[in-house]
Each structure stands twice: as C-alpha cells, then as structure tokens.
C-alpha cells in the first residue's frame, strides 16, 4: 500500500539528515521561483541546494526564441552537475522534469545518489511527454500554441496546478511563463530502464490528482524497490505544502 505522509512542520528539524546536496528541477511553465520556499527550508536545515531554471522559462524566458528542445533542458541541468562538480546528489524533478531526471540518471548515474519524482512524468525510451498525456490535453496544447505560431504553449490558470489560495493564485499568475512547444513532442532516449538502477522515490500529489500524470503514478506504484509516497495537496506541492514536502525530501534514504 502507498505510504501517505502527514507530519507537522514542527518535526522537520528532528527528521533532517546530515547535510545533503539537492538539485530541484521545476516543471512546465514554472521556473526556479517555484522552489524558493522548499529551497530556503532545506538550506536552513544545513543542506546545499541548486534550483536551475530550464531554458525559455522563468527568469530565462527571454531565451524562448532559441526554440529550446528536450535535449536543451537535459543539458541545462547536466551542466550544473558538471561545472558545480556535484556528486552524491538527490535529484528532484517535478511534473515535466521527470524526463530530465530519467535522462540524467541514464547518462550521469555516478553523480546521483537518489532520484525523486514529484508528481512527475515517467517516460519510456522513445516516448515524448505528449505521449503520456490524455488526447484532450494535447489538443488543448495545440490550440494554445496556435496563438504563438507554434513556438510555445501559454500557461493554464493556476487552479489547473491545484492551487486554491487566492494570494497564491495571483502570485503564480504573475510568474508562470509560456512553455517551449517542441519539448512536449521531442522523444526521450534512454539506454537503460527508467532510473538506471538508482534508488527512486515517487511522490504523488493526491488532492486533487493531476490527470495528466495518472499513467506515471500507476507505473511508479508497480515498481519493486521504489519508495512511493503520497502528499494530500495539489500538483504544485512545493507551493502549497512546502513544509511537508521538505520533510519528505529530507527523509530520502
């Protein structure tokens, strides 16, 4: 049975492991900004944290004209691992960034200690992110992209990410950016099974469930040896439940 973790922020410090290195990768339409609360909590507890922003998003949205690909996203984070000389990393990917986590585990396993997929897509080799989404969702993406000439997909409302707090809704509206269109249709290439034998934790957001992630959640549940956790909040858990998510990340074996 999946483990549902509910624990108060007051117990976070007692659960904190010795200093670890985390690389937190945002999902579609987001940027490093979405990890701010979790990153601050991890750093307060003595951990080292990197929050790279993928090309064309967040504070790098001015690079959208470069037509970034899925490979661009993978290299964005690979270069952080390489040039920051990181090792023993807990690599965390939210939503769309699940494909980035899988690619890096495939190519750079020696730098990684544990993989954490946060309500993330799990793609097999040869699949594109669009292949795991419902057909109606892909049609919506295509319709939105028409307004940009097929360059990008404008973001949906914050409520579509499971955000309900009025102040948070207004904040997210200001910060989300269009997502590079082609990255949804680029195919992921893996030379090994998902995770490449590294320890894996999958954290599913359950209140409400994000429909686009359903096949990936079911895949994660079925994997022997993977740790499967649930957090009772919407898809953007780093924004809506930063204390509990931080505790879950700090509990990584």
From TrEMBL:
InterPro entries: AB_hydrolase_1, AB_hydrolase_fold, MES/HNL. Residues 23-245 form the AB hydrolase-1 domain. Pfam families: Abhydrolase_6 (PF12697). SUPFAM superfamilies: alpha/beta-Hydrolases. One of its GO terms (molecular function) is methyl jasmonate esterase activity. It comes from the Bacteria. This is Esterase. It comes from Caballeronia calidae.
């Amino acid at each position: 049975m999946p483990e549902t973790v509910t624990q108060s922020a007051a117990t976070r410090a007692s659960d904190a492991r010795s200093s670890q290195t985390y690389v937190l990768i945002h999902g579609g339409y987001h940027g490093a900004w979405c990890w701010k609360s979790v990153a601050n909590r991890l750093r307060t507890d003595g951990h080292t944290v990197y929050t790279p922003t993928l090309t064309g998003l967040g504070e790098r949205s001015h690079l959208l004209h470069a037509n970034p690909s899925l490979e661009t996203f993978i290299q964005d984070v690979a270069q952080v691992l390489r040039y920051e000389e990181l090792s023993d990393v807990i690599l965390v990917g939210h939503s769309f960034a699940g494909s980035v986590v899988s690619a890096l585990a495939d190519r750079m396993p020696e730098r990684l200690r544990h993989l954490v997929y946060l309500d993330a897509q799990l793609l097999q080799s040869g699949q594109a992110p669009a292949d795991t989404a419902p057909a109606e969702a892909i049609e919506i993406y295509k319709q939105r992209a028409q307004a940009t000439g097929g360059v990008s997909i404008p973001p949906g409302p914050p409520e579509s990410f499971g955000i309900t707090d009025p102040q948070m809704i207004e904040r997210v509206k200001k910060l989300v950016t269009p997502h590079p269109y082609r990255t949804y249709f680029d195919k992921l290439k893996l030379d090994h099974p998902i995770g490449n034998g590294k320890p894996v934790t999958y954290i599913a957001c359950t209140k409400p469930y994000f429909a686009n992630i359903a096949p990936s959640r079911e895949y994660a549940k079925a994997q022997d040896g993977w740790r499967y956790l649930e957090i009772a909040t919407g898809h953007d858990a780093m924004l809506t439940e930063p204390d509990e998510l931080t505790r879950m990340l700090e509990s990584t074996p």
